[in-house]
């Protein structure tokens, strides 16, 4: 792994931690109550090794196949205590595979998926292939456009049903709620609505206090509205390659700053030293 990439990630991580501290302080919260989940999807295992060397112990991945392959390749190369989070959309037929590598799933959005994951995690616990129950966030959709996943937030009975299914599954623990704001939405409004829903769900499930919310572009707003886990990709790793990680190596710092492809839809990089 290159020294240049190590320096780049070290700098981005330090800037991100300052940004998170600042966001917590601005919200009157203890920075230690806001977890940082580096999202390493599309980036190579060598980046994960570097981040582990910099003290990161939690990693978010969005696709079962990519995550399983990376984790297998990293066997024995990471410190103890590393935990893996599945943050992407999940089909029921992946439940058994995910239950073998994920410590936490952020994207449970149906009773059927909860049941499948619960059964898979219980089976893996039973035969020693996992040591702890699978922590599960119920994903809610803030605009009720469920094409991107999530239980419609304006259907509280449906949210309750999925939360109850997770809470009642032997292999699962209900961690809390997760959401991704709709494209173009005002993050303050979106996360405010999410915070209301979290209060409502917590009244029924008092231990489900987690809130997985906030990404590179909107983490300040998410922290203001109570996020306990921000999922950050771009601001830490740089822009993701636009095609499959199998055929493209991640862009380097030089191509990100001055020579980026014109017309690339990727969001601007978090500027170094800025607290944006
Ligand atoms: C990719 C991804 C992220 C990270 O997004 P960035 O804007 O790159 O920080 C967060 N959450 C989910 C569900 C993702 O798929």
Automatic annotation (TrEMBL):
Residues 241-256 have a biased composition (Low complexity). SUPFAM superfamilies: PLP-binding barrel. Its cofactor is pyridoxal 5'-phosphate. The modification N6-(pyridoxal phosphate)lysine is found at residue 41. Pfam families: Ala_racemase_N. GO terms for molecular function: pyridoxal phosphate binding. Residues 240-276 are annotated as: Disordered. Keywords: Pyridoxal phosphate. Residues 13-241 form the Alanine racemase N-terminal domain. It comes from the Bacteria. Belongs to the pyridoxal phosphate-binding protein YggS/PROSC family. Pyridoxal 5'-phosphate (PLP)-binding protein, which is involved in PLP homeostasis. NCBIfam families: YggS family pyridoxal phosphate-dependent enzyme. This is Pyridoxal phosphate homeostasis protein. It comes from Mycolicibacterium brumae.
């Amino acid at each position: 792994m290159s020294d240049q990439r190590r320096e780049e990630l070290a700098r981005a991580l330090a800037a991100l931690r300052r940004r998170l501290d600042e966001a917590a302080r601005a919200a009157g919260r203890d920075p230690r109550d806001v977890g940082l989940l580096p999202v390493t999807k599309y980036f190579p295992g060598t980046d994960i090794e570097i981040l582990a060397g910099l003290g990161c112990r939690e990693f978010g991945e969005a696709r079962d196949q990519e995550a399983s392959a990376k984790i297998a390749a990293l066997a024995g190369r990471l410190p103890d205590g590393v935990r893996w989070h599945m943050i992407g959309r999940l089909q029921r037929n992946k439940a058994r595979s995910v239950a073998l590598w994920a410590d936490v799933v952020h994207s449970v959005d149906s009773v059927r998926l909860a049941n499948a994951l619960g059964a898979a995690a219980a089976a893996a616990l039973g035969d020693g292939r996992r040591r702890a129950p699978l922590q599960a966030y119920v994903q809610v959709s803030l605009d009720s456009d469920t094409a991107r996943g999530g239980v419609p937030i304006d259907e509280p009975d449906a949210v309750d049903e999925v939360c109850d299914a997770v809470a009642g599954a032997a292999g699962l623990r209900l961690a809390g709620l997760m959401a991704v704001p709709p494209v173009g939405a005002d993050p303050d409004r979106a996360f405010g609505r999410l915070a209301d829903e979290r209060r409502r769900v917590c009244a029924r499930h008092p231990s489900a206090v987690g809130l997985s919310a906030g990404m590179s572009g909107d983490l300040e707003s998410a922290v203001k509205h109570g996020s306990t886990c921000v999922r950050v990709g771009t601001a830490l790793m740089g822009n993701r390659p636009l095609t499959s990680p199998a055929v493209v190596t991640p862009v380097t710092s030089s191509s990100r700053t001055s020579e980026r492809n014109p017309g690339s839809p990727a969001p601007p990089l978090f500027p170094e030293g800025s607290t944006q």
